[in-house]
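Subject: GPI-anchor transamidase subunit S structure
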Amino acid sequence: MTLPKDRTAAQDRTRRMVLLSIWIAILLGFPLWWKTTRVYRAELPFDEVEQWSQWSSCRPAFPLKINVHLSDAVSLPGSVNPQQQHEAIVSEIINKVQSSSPSSGSQNLPLEVVLVDQAWRGTKEQDILDRPSAVPGTYDFYISPTSSTSKKTSVSIKSQRQGWIQVADWTQDQISSAVAETLERVFGSERTKIQKLLDRQDEEEAAKVKTAVKYASGYQLTFSLFSGDTSNGVREWKMQEAINTYMAPFLRTMSVVSKFTVESQVQHYASLTFQPDLDATAKEYYLTPDKLPNFINTAEWSLASTVSSLPSLNFLVYVPPADQSPLVIKSGPGAPPSKTNSFLIPRWGGITVLNRPANDPILTVSELEPVMKIFLSQLRDLLGLSDLSTSVPAGSFPITFQKNEATSMTTWELDQLLRKRISENLVDSIKTLGSLARLVADTPNMVVLDPIQEDVTQALLDVKAACEKVQGSSSSSLSTGSAVEEALQHSRDALEKAESAFFDPTMVSMLYFPDEHKYAIYMPLFVPISVPLLLSLLKELKKWAAAKKEAKAKASAKKTAGQDADAEHVHDRKEEAEDRKTK
């Protein structure tokens, strides 16, 4: 027969085993739950991103090689040893260039001046034109005495990385001064721009207004003809032939920087969203500058490209209806109309208003020539091409620039654009990676998967490769144009990888499930379960503590009783011993 006391002890053991098994399951399951529900965050190289933001690892620099060709038609006065004379000229040129350029910006475009030993007669300009340089960053300057009767120094910058400097006084000091001033005036503005770009000193100004589009490896050019109605007879235009004639050479030259795809379209009955004003005196309709931002009728005009996903640049020819012709752009009645009758929309494209007679249903190539020249000028602005003739400051002698009529772009402008785009890509890549690093650091519940880590790592490798291609380049490594083109490719890849990591859709998957939502989901489930478990655990702990205390008290009492018995036994033995002695 089981005693009640034994039955109670068995029930206590069973209850404790059940409670213990529940808590063991909780303790063993908690790490698994934590592992399966935590936000995965791959390690990102924050320190390396910070170093690049300060250009601690590598600062981009674009070394320029300047080949100086002295004319041997006239000997330098007092030249005994030509070799020593040449070395002295080069040294003096370098010293004057360094003294005239700011020390903070000279590191961006370091110059290597080399005096070429090859003889140059310096008598015909054709001799210069027949010797173009095919290497980006390598320029040839031909120096000769002036042939004019005015005896003044003059400089002519040719289109293929050549320059002709005609010096008034054929002396070492005049030659070095003319070359040094020419180099500073031609490259000084670019050096300052690159310096500000790398140091991010012009971010606020650039954010306010920036005509050029953001760099991309390719662009979609869309040429559109919008006709107000069909009464003017425009039913067809020879745009493809016009593109091949006026635009294709430029696009082929620009293919080093970006690729282009071209499409064209015609849309009739394209009405404006407003009524143009009438100048009764001039008998013409006009658009004021404040109405130009609303010129495009986005609700009815189809401008979205379905050919590719590349960034689109739009060039629009608008032929007004007969009842609104002629239509010009001017500031108000009586004001002179715009010479080009066109305007540019920053980062979007250009628009030209074309007034034409209604007797010809076809826009011919010759009729499109002025329009294409306007579009070509607008495309240059949109792509960030700078006109050297407008950026060179005034000096002690004139500098003229030769245009390239065949391609509408000189190699000087192409080189500047390459250096500018490489710098922009590197700066934008590092800015994007820095923004990503701050975003991840400030958002603990943001997912960072391994592909994002790989993109960031690869972007940093491409930034390093691009920087080393240009920063570590010497004149020997620039013997071909591949170094600059490879640097552009690496900077392009770095920007694409950085933006791919920043805009990865998996990063926002947990942003809509913050910790507050977790508490709201788990508390209704775990609080009702955890309260009885905790109370039961506390109750059992109290019982265990009380039982332990009771057992300890019993053991202490038993020990005390044993000690009393031993003492009494010793006392009895002593009394017996004393009695035996008395007897």
